[in-house]
Amino acid sequence: MRILSGVQPSGRLHIGNWFGAIRQFVRLQSEGHDCFYFIANYHALTSSQDKAFVADATMHLAMGMLSLGIDPARSTLFVQSDVPQVTELTWFLNCVCPMGLLERGTSFKDKVQRGIAANVGLFDYPVLQAADIAVYDANLVPVGADQKQHLEMTRDLVGKLNQAWGQELLVLPQPHIVESVAVVPGLDGQKMSKSYDNTIEIFAPDKATSMRCMQIVTDSTPLEAPKDPDGCNVFALIKLFAAADEQARIAQAYRAGGYGYGHAKKRLGELINAEFAQARARYAELEQHPDDVRDILAEGGRKARAVAEATMARVRAAAGILTHR
Ligand code: ADP
Ligand code: TRP
Q1: Which domains does the chain show, CATH number per domain?
Q2: Rounded CA gap, 140 and 59, in Å?
Q3: Could you tell me the strand order of the sheet in which 2-7 lies?
Q4: Which of 31, 95, 194, 288 is the 20 to 30 Å CA partner of 203?
Q5: What is the rounded average pLDDT of the residues 262-267?
Q6: Rounded distance, CA 102 to CA 123, Å?
Q7: Taking CB atoms and a 6 Å cutoff, what residues make up the pocket around ligand 2?
Q8: Taking 80 as the threshold, does the pLDDT of residue 60 lie above it?
Q9: Are strands 34-39 and 75-79 parallel, antiparallel or unpaired?
Q10: Which is nearest to 256 in space by CA: 281, 227, 219, 213?
Q11: Is residue 7 helix, strand or coil?
Q12: CA distance 125 to 109
């Protein structure tokens, strides 16, 4: 089975990215599937035109994914823009995509509603994402729940292209969403997201992580009073990291009273720092060897281009696009 997913280089990796997406990437890789993972730098251009920011976030993501367990010997890791065929397929998909399909896009509608001048790239974002998936004949796409609509649009667009030019041209992909961790809450209880400044970063120093945990929003129940673990943002995050027996003990301490939110936040910081200690050490090591990372991306790009070119040769011929190379 061909697995494919991408992450935008639009900021630092956070624990929502880990539970919602990258942990599944690593699991699927260990199950022996043919995995393609990439850094969606063309998607990032829809929200940032800051050259240093995009370039820096791209390297951060590459090193982050490698440190978290993406193994270049088993998975193809590459950068979106190293495969020009993806923007080429975007054009074919654009030409079978009804305007109405994109006008229903929630992230585009959000921006327009907030009075932000959305660019055409943002409008077309889901079509580029559909091309990302279809150009590699992907069967399964591991993502967080926020990507559900994009996957539905991808399936629509694949159907439309096949209807226009040939039933078996593109593979119809399925989303792979793990419901129990589909939405990791941020410091304010909303979905954790780079765009809401409510994240806990994976690759921050221990001290910064602990300080970030202290900023989680809680109610003002006094320390001695009993508390409800199930309505608490701190406990929601503890559940992701603590073993079952510790979870049960902490839940009981909440209900008994005399256990403050401060205690819970401190413990959460320790749990996160322990969970990512190994990955952070690997990251520090990779930072010393950026050329090795670039070699891995170059090799991944070569493999990805070969697959993408085979798809495009099929699509061009089927659409009556004559090539003279
Ligand atoms: P962000 O919302 O911070 O910009 P991205 O859009 O880059 O994150 O997401 C990369 C991957 O991580 C996607 O598959 C997305 O669904 C997943 N993801 C992001 N935030 C969360 C979250 N809070 N909970 C679960 N999954 C998430
Ligand atoms: N839109 C995705 C996100 O914000 C990133 C992405 C781009 C992606 N292309 C993709 C995810 C293809 C899966 C498959 O997280």
Answers
A1: 2-183+290-319 (3.40.50.620), 204-275 (1.10.240.10)
A2: 26
A3: 75-79, 34-39, 2-7, 140-142, 174-176
A4: 31
A5: 97
A6: 7
A7: 4-8, 40, 43, 129, 132-133, 141, 143, 147, 150
A8: yes
A9: parallel
A10: 227
A11: strand
A12: 12
Residue 20 carries which DSSP code? I
Calpha distance 142→6 (Å, rounded): 9
Largest CA distance in the chain: 78
* Closest atom of ligand 1 to CA, residue 183: 24
| pLDDT for res 222 | 93
Catalytic residue, from 51, 109, 148, 191: name it.
191
Residue 105 is which amino acid? G
| Whether this model's pTM surpasses 0.85 | yes
**β-sheet bridge partners, residue 142:** 176
Confidence class for position 180, pLDDT limits 50, 70, 90: confident
Q: Cα–Cα distance between 287 and 42 in angstroms, integer? A: 24
For residue 166, give both structure tokens.
Answer: 């040939």
Looking at residue 115, its pLDDT comes to 87
